[in-house]
Amino acid sequence: MTQSRATMIGFLAVLLWALLAFLTVKTAPVPPFQLNAMAFLVGGGVGLIWLWRARGGLGFLRRASLSVWLLGIGGLFGYHFLYFSALRLAPAAEAGLIAYLWPLLIVLFSGLLPGERLFPQHILGAILSLAGAGLILMGNGDGFQGQYLLGYGMAGLCALTWSGYSVLSRRNGAVPTGIVTFFCLGSAGLSMLAHLTFEVTTWPDGAGGWGAVLLLGLGPVGLAFFLWDVGMKKGNIQLLGVASYAAPLLSTVVLIVAGIAEPTRMLILAALLIVGGALIAARAGRA
Description:
- This protein is mainly alpha-helical.
- It has helices at 3-17, 20-26, 32-54, 60-63, 66-89, 92-99, 102-110, 120-138, 149-169, 180-198, 206-234, 237-243, 246-257, 265-286.
- It has 14 helices and no strands.
- Helix 6 (92-99) packs parallel to helix 9.
């Protein structure tokens, strides 16, 4: 597989994550950890289909080290656990902005990988795209406030967790992507434990709610992780990091099309910043 094809496969994950907010809204009133458990369980089913199509058997599971398992399950479950905790302890807009530092951290951390080189254009592109994502995520918020420091800290750990998982996945390039199946199933189990500890079980509202849960598990919390694994292991990791800032932009566009949000001038400016940053990083990647 060529690097450009792997990069495009990885970007498909970003496109799927653009549906995350819309589908999550449609799953109300299911609490977050219960939703996580249900979606990851469906995601594990996606993985079983992935393994069936690969037809490589499960022998690679015996060769996977403990560190691979800790990284995979810790990355998927840890990110969502910290993200939901941050949203409970701090305003969603500000916590979301901090959590969405992970694409910038991927770009910066990638320079530490063997055989990778970080150009100034990568950093410039990531910063521009971060500014665009910030315009979307901040919205009309009141800014950062001291009483929410714990929530902000959780969001920062969230960004470190996903960027660390993504970059370190590159070092496990010999491990087949099919192992993500068991990362999803393990995350589903841990999410269910968190649900039973912190939440009251609430089932989806009608056929639409159940359908949204199914689509969530098939796409943003399912297939997306497999596509992202391919991109991180074989694609242009810096370009994917910057391109990930398209997720909040595309997510907002989906909400507008669905009639849940309204288009604004801020959205247009954010789009220009995000696309401009991605183009700068793409040019650096070609160089």
